[in-house]
Amino acid sequence: MDFFGAYTPSHLTFLLEGFWVTLQVAFLSIVLSFSVAIVVGVLRYAKIPGVSHVLGTIVELVRNLPLLLIIFFTYFALPEVGIKLDKFWAAVLALVIFEAAMLSEIVRSGLNSVEKGQIEAARSSGLNYVQTLWNVVLPQALRRMVPPIVSQFISLLKDTSLAVVIALPELMNHAQIINGRNVNYVIPTFLMVAVMYFIVNYALSVVSKRLENKHA
Asked: Counting CB atoms within 10 angstroms of each CB, which of 52, 105, 111, 154 has the fewest?
């Protein structure tokens, strides 16, 4: 093991550049997948004839596919039908598809957890279905969804490492490049990668616990 050689300023800068790409992919994927999940979760909760069933089938299909396969599909298969994405957006699209399916189930479960009595009370007070959903059901459900949603966001951040298979210049890709220069850099480099992932994921966990305690 060569910690001094592995932790040169140039190597650390190179890892940070890769980590910055990881964070960008994760941030965009979180925002987009959560937006899609809210829509899908609400539509499934509303049990709209036909729509709810189709969305449920798609969600179950995606949830039971490996993320790695979806990454290969967005980067290698989509160009065959005329949709060519660069490595960055192929990774984002794959993560959004996969995570939106996962998050939509959390959203639907959260909505279903709101007591029927509150919904009936809101409707009897004059609110229509959409107003009840927006003003009564969704706010309560979101508070209950915080822990599992943040947990899924943490998984998403870790899942960005799978984009190494399409040579996206993210953290794991840069770590592999450094390791390729000297076998003695492997352990020190992966330790530093672990520290970087841990810092961000632990911060998300702390935020989740504070939000959970705040709304307890």
From this structure: 52
